[in-house]
Every structure is written in C-alpha cells, then in structure tokens.
Amino acid sequence: MLIPIHDPADPRVEPYRDIRERDLVGRQGLFVAEGEVVLRLLARQAGFEAVSVLIDPRRQAKLQPILDDLPAAVPVYRADQAVLDAIAGFHLHRGILALGRRIDPPSAAALLDRLPERALVLALVGIANHDNMGGLFRNAAAFGADAVLLDPACCDPLYRKAIRVSVGGVLVTPFARLAEGQDLIDLLQARELQPIALSPAGEIPLAGLPPPGRAALIAGAEGPGLPEALLVRCTTVSIPMAPGFDSLNVATAAGIALHHLRNGNPQGLVTAPC
Questions:
Q1: From its phi and psi, is residue 209 left (phi > 0), alpha (psi between -120 and 50) or beta?
Q2: What superfamily does domain 2-102 belong to in CATH?
Q3: Cβ atoms within 10 Å of 33's Cβ, excluding its own
Q4: Which is the CATH superfamily of the domain at 108-263?
C-alpha cells in the first residue's frame, strides 16, 4: 500500500506530526521507530508489529526487501523531504519513520518463567534517562542477555530516543516491567537467579566473580545508585578503576559486567546479537 503524501496536514500521517512534542505526551500504546536498522527489526521481530511506515521516496528501492516483509495491509506513506520535515517538525535526515505496536507484553514473572536453563537477566532500577536506557538495551542485545526487567520507576524503553540509541536492541531482547510493590529479589530468587548488584562499593571485584549459570545483573541510576535495602540482599560487585575515580556511566558499567557474565561462562549463552 504505497500512498503518496503531499500535504503535511494530511490526517493519515497525523501520528507522525510534531514528533518531539508527541514524545512528551505519549502515543497510547504506539511508538515511533527511526532508521533502516530499526525498521528491519520491527518488520521481522516477534512481539512487535508495524502499524504504518513513512519514507522519503528516494529510500524506497533500498528499503523494498524490508517493505516486502510487512503485511500487505500496512500502509507505506511516501513524502518528499520537505514534506517529511514539515510533518516531523525537524529535519529528518534518515528519511525513514515507522509507527509500531508491542503485542501482548508479558508480566515480569511470565518472562522469567520461560528463561532457558542457563540464563542471564539484566534488571534495572530507577533508570530515568532515555539515552542510558537505550545504551543498556544495546548492551543487553550485544552480550546475549535473555531478558531485561524494569522496575516501576524506569522510563519507557519504547520512547523514540531510547529505541534509536539502542539501535533496535529494545526490539531484540524481551523485557517486562515489575508491578508496583513487586519484590525484585524475591522474583529472581524464586527462579534460582542469583542477584548480582553493581556498586562502586561492591564487595567483590567483577573479575573475581565466577559467572553463575543463572544470574541477574542489577544496575541503578547514576548518582543515587541502588538502594541499600536492595544491596544487602545481593552479591555486590565493583569494577576497579584508576585511583581517584570511582564512577562509570551505567550503560558502560553494565556492558562490562554483562560481557564478563556472558563470556566468563564456559558453556556460554547462545543468542543472536542485534
């Protein structure tokens, strides 16, 4: 369904209008994906579906194999660059947008219940920065995490910027959000997942921790870090740094730890990276 759009006010592309402003107010269960890599994942990844696509006609030939993977009923709108920019509210240099929907997101318990025998989970507490959220999902996908858990205070990983920073990793690694009042550590331990918390004051240097067969790496927001009440219930690990410096970006720290837990496991965790 290739549909030309000549007027930025065309109601058919209203969900794409003034993207940055709409990012702030939400899209009632929908999300915006940008770029070729993310569109390819949206078209092919289980658990998500494309609602519509908006492209610069100059991109069509290169995107055709991806567009062919979409259900026939998904409209593909084509708009010249000037019209695209007027719709989005800024210069859209990639020339590729899509509107997507997540299908039947699982509960945190249901997601953990379907993990393999050997499993690696990334659990996030209070991550409110969308750049960090995107970086964390990119690392989770790259290092083969089987799932990501979010506490209620975490921001939405399907926010446009988080998806873009993750390079589509948000669409690759299954994730679920804890319900209000749900106890993260109880949830993990009930499924024999060892909770391993990142902290500058961690009791064990990361390199000295033998990776367990079932592990959950827990990371908190930069600044406040993880609550003390949670840390005392976990194995705490630190990443040694140069004297006088004890802090890393949370996505960087989690990436280092995920690499250790993934590659330090002699049997490995075989999953496809993003």
A1: beta
A2: Ribosomal protein L30/S12 (3.30.1330.30)
A3: 26
A4: SPOUT methyltransferase, trefoil knot domain (3.40.1280.10)
What average pLDDT does the segment 69-90 reach?
94
In SS3 terms, 98-123 reads as: EEEEECCCCCHHHHHHCCCCCEEEEE
- What's CA 75's distance to the chain center, in Å? 26
pLDDT digits (tens, 9 = 90+) for 20-46: 877 766 667 899 999 999 999 999 999
Chain-centroid distance of CA 261 in Å reads: 19
- Cβ atoms 100, 49 nearer than 8 A: yes
Segments making up each domain of the chain, as ranges: 2-102, 108-263
pLDDT, tens digit, 9 for 90 and up, residues 105-140: 999 999 999 999 999 999 999 999 999 999 999 999
